[in-house]
Amino acid sequence: MKIGIVCYPTFGGSGVVATELGLELSKRGHNIHFITYNQPVRLELLGNNVHYHEVNVPEYPLFHYQPYELALSSKLVDMVKLHKIEILHVHYAIPHAYAAYMAQKMLQEDGIYIPFVTTLHGTDITLVGSHPFYKPAVTFSINKSNAVTAVSESLREDTLRLFDIKNDIKVITNFIDLNKFDHTFTDCQRGMMATEDEKIITHISNFRPVKRILDIIKTFYNIQKTIPAKLMMVGEGPEREPAERLCRKLGITDKVVFFGNSNEIDRILCFSDLFLLLSETESFGLSALEAMASGVPVISSNTGGIPEVNEQGFSGFLSEVGNVEEMSKNAIKILQDETTLKQFKNNAKEQARKFDIANIVPQYEAIYEETLRNCKE
Ligand code: GMT
After folding, report:
1. Is the pLDDT of residue 46 over 80?
2. Which residues form the Glycosyl transferase family domain (predicted)?
């Protein structure tokens, strides 16, 4: 199949999922065209059947806001015609589903019908999409999609609750390529980060308020009072500065490393003992799954789709959002002795296997095939 993938190219779960999906589909013989405003961060290898087409939005003094969806839909029209793309898969409803619908309509004028599949990722529904300023356009473009998927059951339920949806929504969970997290091949430089007796705790995100970054710092502060530890903070975003300030106030700056964005999270996870994901809301929590695939247990909030990923008392522990005291106690429970930690590490790896890429990607292929069949009928 010739498949056009539209996503956000930046660090962040939806772009990562779209990129990994495209790469896996290309290995399975499909021809993949990424259409976005920058080369996706995890898209390193372009080849015979992986292509990247950049969407350019020319600046013009009249525009206070650059009309990205207009440029995207025009690019989609051009690329569908030029490369004979058969189906579009857009990740994150805003504004991608809207732009895909416009492209579909424009192409119909030329006698071409291009179906599009929309995958809902989370904040396009829960935080941004349901805002009254966007809601009518988001509802419309979900309903006009030829097929809709959501990355967790919780996100599917949120979508049906928040919007007037006429379409079916199929759950296809996020996935993981376990081979990429096989640390027998990784140069694991634990000694550079911590001493022998220190445990390494990690958090990875875009440091938005929804990630409750200050809870991460407070939880770590409690943990390190009992267990010698270091905290690895990976990512960039608006909450980094307040987090650094809190570290100074608590006197733990020498124990917390802020890495900024990284393309080598497997190398950071390989020496991690525990992962923290304490978000206000989270449709899935791909970073937690990546941690588990590395054999790192997870302390998380019990919100959104996280309980579908992190199993209470097995791969880690879940607490109500903001319950830093309980989260700290649970973290200490996991880290307290080597036998317990080893058991949780093994469990985390086992839990991650449920989301093996090999089982999930065929579900997307089935959706594409069904959508194309429906269009021909
Ligand atoms: O978490 C973010 O703010 C980034 C966002 C994105 O679209 O990149 O992540 C969302 O999609 C991921 C991939 O499906 C999910 O794993 C994240 O849980 C989800 N984030 C939220 O729901 C807050």
Report:
1. no
2. 196-350
Sheet hosting strand 316-319, strand order edge to edge: 256-260, 229-234, 199-204, 274-277, 298-301, 316-319
Burial of residue 244 (number of CB atoms within 10 Å: 0-12, 13-18, 19+): middle
User: Is pLDDT at 48 greater than 90 in this prediction?
Assistant: no
Helices H / strands E in the chain, number of each: 13, 13
What local confidence, expressed as pLDDT, does residue 186 receive? 63
Residues belonging to the chain:
377
Q: Which atom of ligand 1 is nearest to the CA of 122?
A: 22
Looking at the DSSP bridge assignments, the partners of residue 137 are: none
How far is 36 from 29, CA to CA, in rounded Å? 22
Nearest CA to ligand 1 atom 2: 12
Tokens standing for 359?
């089982």
Distances (CA, A) of 57 to 34, 327, 358: 17, 45, 37
Q: Exposed (0-12), middle (13-18) or buried (19+): which is 265, by Cβ within 10 Å? A: buried
Domains of the chain by range and CATH?
A: 2-175+356-376 (3.40.50.2000), 178-355 (3.40.50.2000)
Ligand 1 touching residue 208 (CB < 6 A): yes
What DSSP assignment string belongs to 61-72? TT-SS--HHHHH
pTM: 0.94
Q: Write down the H helix ranges in the chain.
A: 13-27, 68-83, 93-108, 135-144, 153-162, 213-226, 240-250, 265-269, 286-293, 306-309, 324-335, 338-353, 357-376
